[in-house]
Amino acid sequence: MFHLLAQNVINALQLGSVYALIALGYTMVYGILTMINFAHGDIFMVSTYFSLMASLFLLGLPFKIPLAGVFLASLLFSMGLTALLGVTIERLAYRPLRQAPRVSAVITALGVGLFLEHFTLALLGPEPRRFPDLLPATSWQVAGLTLTPLQLLTIVLAALIMVLLDLLVSRTLLGMAMRAISYNRPIVPLMGVPVNRVISLTFALGSAIAAAGGLMYGLAYPVLDPYMGIRIGWWAFIAAVVGGIGNIRGAMLGGFILGAVEIFTPVFLPSSTYRDFVAFSLLLVLLVFRPTGLMGRPVFERV
Amino acid sequence: MGVARGKRRFLTWAVILLLLVLTWALSALELLNRYLIQILMYVGINMILTLSLNLVNGYMGEFSVGHAGFMAIGAYISAIITVWWLPREWGPWLFPAVLVTGGLAAGAAALVVAFPSFRTRGDYLAIVTLAFNMIVKSVLENLEVVGGPRGFKDMALLTNLPWVVFWVLLTLYFCRNLVYSNFGRGIMAIREDEVAANLTSVDTRRLKIYAFCLSAFFAGVAGGLFAHLLQFINPRSFSILKSTDMLVMVYLGGVASLSGSLLGAALFTLILEFLRPLGLWRWVVGPLLLVLLMIFRPRGILGFRDPAWLKPAEEIEAG
Asked: Which of B119, B128, B290 sits opposite A107 (nearest CB)?
């Protein structure tokens, strides 16, 4: 029993890492623009196709490239291209609405997400694509538990990205500018902070981090389809809200909680199809009792 | 003035009667082919959905994104009633009562959702309604009694064009009277400034819950009509995509506008129908339209406007 629990905790950590990486994008954009970027899940979906493209191209070359090289190149290619996609979306769809009512921006984000889904669907057809194996399929036995290279790599990579991001936000000038914008947007330009550039960089960062999550997800669940971003995106979004939207450490915590929900639902309930029900009920209950999430601070409206 | 108002009233009823007779004649005498009538019925159902969603999103300025969840509840409840509990030959006679029951069930669900969610801040209604939509879909997929993911079937074809037109007119009548009543002024005050509305003795919390439940009621009725038109429903028909379609119709036609709701529903349904030859690319049009609308015309075609014949006489005299 304990053994099963421990094994599931490892699985939950792996999946939770992916959710946390995507949740970071939601929470960063919300922190800086107070806008829910509902297209983020679909940006994640497009990123998995980018890494699929890169790895299929590299594997198809006439000369052999070591798998580690293919993995690294796919990761960088996908992160770069996805960052570009995020910035483009912000520039074309969200920036014109910066002064508009907040509802317009949220609806636009929903529209952009659906556009990405249906565009990918129309471009590539409805057949799911298979992701190639880039990591050795061996597994290690540690204290009776099974650990695969993929699990280890996912957890380590996610932890590394989170630490780097946390340092970036708390220690660098860019991070300071981000925090300043989220604290008081009208005043910040007066202090000489290039608001538009900082916002673009936030979108680039958030999207690139989602792309890292995308590659790790693609390797773990190697069937890609254009609608995969809906569920993953929603789950990551719940993770961000559970942790307290706008709060970067909260997003990480939320990601791991959601990973645990997904892994442990089939353990305690008859079927894994109940997982959406469990996750969204968790969200509702949390919103009733702690509307600002586990680590968020309350916001008061000034009259 | 009294004469003018009497004349207006007479004209209105004449037009309504004419419309009902016309739609009855159209389908009974087979003047239009079946395909066209089917599309007209979809337009009508979408009109009901758009009118009801506009009450919350347009007039009240809140942001509900899970309307398909209420539609699902109305559809499943009314379908269960006609298939399991009513003798088949009673169906046509009790159809309005069945629809109302489905609508009431959706309204009750809205009450459960509204109660906690209006305590939290603005964006959270969007999150809560979305979560509600997902939960409804997930529950329906796990309920084997109603077919699970395969769906629920064997409904009789009870929806016809006259019934759809009747319900569209009823919804329009209801929403119109509501919007120009004290209640309507209250919810518009909430849209403009909730704190100020509260200070001028608008019971904002209660009005929000009322408006939300009413909106869900009509979504439930539309769901019932939809179920008995298609004769087959499954949880996937009520996904978040359906909710987004409704949003597109509201923001295409016009926020806080009755005529806009009718126009938006008609335009969107017909455009999608005309684009059928495009195949998969057809689905790119809706989202693209939504984004472009939000950037270039966020109020929609007829936002915050209505023709004089939809307004009460007092409103016109006041200017």
From this structure: B290
Q: How many separate domains does chain A show?
A: 1
Indicate whether A301 belongs to any domain: no
pLDDT at A175 over 80: yes
ipTM value for the complex = 0.82
Of the candidates A104, A125, A287, the beta carbon closest to that of B294 is on: A104
| pLDDT, tens digit, 9 for 90 and up, residues B155-185 | 888 888 889 999 999 999 999 999 999 999 9
3-state secondary structure of A129: strand
At the top level of CATH, the class of B32-237 is mainly alpha
Query: Which two three-digit tokens encode residue A195?
Result: 């608001």
> DSSP letters along B16-79, please?
HHHHHHHHHHHHHTT-S-HHHHHHHHHHHHHHHHHHHHHIIIIIS------HHHHHHHHHHHHH
Facing B295 at nearest CB: one of A96, A277, A291:
A96
Domain boundaries, chain B: 32-237
Domain that holds residue A253: 2-136+144-289
Residue A295 lies in a domain: no
- CATH number of the domain enclosing A179: 1.10.3470
Residue of B53, B192, B272, B280 to mutate, testing the A interface (most A Cβ within 10 Å of its Cβ): B280
Record: contact A97-B294, CB cut-off 8 A: yes
Average pLDDT over residues B209-227: 95
